[in-house]
Amino acid sequence: YFKKRFEESGRIKKMESVFPDFLQLMSSNLRAGMTIDKAMLLSSRPEFAPLDEEILKTGKDIVTSRNIEKALLELSKRIQSEKIHKIILLVISGLRSGGDLAILLEETSVSMREREFLEKKASSNVLMYVIFIFLVVSIFAPALFSLSNVLVEVLSKILSSIPETNTLTVSLPFGTLSKISVSIDFINYFSIAFIIVIDILASLILGLVSKGEEREGLKFLPAILIMSLVVFFGAKIFLSGFMSGFV
After folding, report:
1. Rounded to a whole number, what is the largest CA-CA distance in the chain?
2. How far is residue 25 CA from its own chain's centroid?
3. Alpha helix (H) ranges present in the chain?
4. Which long-range contacts does 25-28 make (Cβ < 8 Å, 24+ apart)?
5. Phi/psi class of residue 152: alpha, beta or left (left: φ > 0; alpha: ψ in -120 to 50)?
6. Highest mean pLDDT among 167-171, 182-186, 231-235
7. Pairwise CA distance, residues 79 & 179, whole Å
């Protein structure tokens, strides 16, 4: 399911990236005196793939005397892009108001390029936040969880080695403490489960911050999850060996 969703998302992104070029080319064809259907058919270029197939189909719909507004709405429906859908609605609004379609397409193309530039600039501005979130969930949090596991294990061993007598009173920094009621296995499983949960949530946040869509962050999930578990078990082994000398 996720593979299919990623493929669909990649397909939509490709069409969104070449859509301004398509609008610019169609505007040039209209300025050359071509009709709308011919201008659209000649704007279907292989370098616009996979948008070229949708353009060709829309041009054929217009040639067969289909209403241009309905043909454009069908194009938007097939592409399934919110950004392109809004652009097409803007074009339809311009057609209804009797504006020059060539000028409208050219200005829309320029606006789309400016918006794409601003999105890339915004993405670069939040890069530090993305790096910070990635480091926290993949390194710092697993290391702290492994430290808590080792501390509980060491403390359990220390308390189990204290002799129990009626006359002996042991004063610990934590107060009167004779044993830890929480099992080591429970803490270990809880840590792993919590790491997986925060990795999933963090990947969604990364997608929202960097791409504007939560699902875009799911492609970071495997890398974050693998690194988190490696850090967790690696730090746990290292700290266990280091703390063993104190028990």
Report:
1. 105
2. 32
3. 2-31, 36-42, 51-63, 68-79, 82-96, 101-125, 127-135, 141-160, 184-210, 221-243
4. 26/105, 27/101, 27/102, 27/103, 27/105, 27/106, 27/109, 28/102
5. alpha
6. 231-235
7. 63
User: What's 140's DSSP letter?
Assistant: I
DSSP assignment string, 38-63: HHHHHT--GGGTTHHHHHHHHHHHHH
Q: DSSP letters along 192-209, please?
A: HHHHHHHHHHHHHHHHHH
Tens digit of each residue's pLDDT (9 = 90 or more) over 41-95: 888 888 888 888 888 888 888 777 677 888 888 888 888 888 888 888 888 887 7
Residue 216 in tokens: 């875009």
What is the CA 134 to chain-centroid distance, rounded? 12
Q: Which amino acid is at 32?
A: A
What amino acid occupies position 51?
A: L
0.70 exceeded by pTM: no
In sequence order, which residues have a C-beta less than 8 Å from that of residue 15 and are 6 or more positions away?
Answer: 50, 51, 54, 79, 81, 84
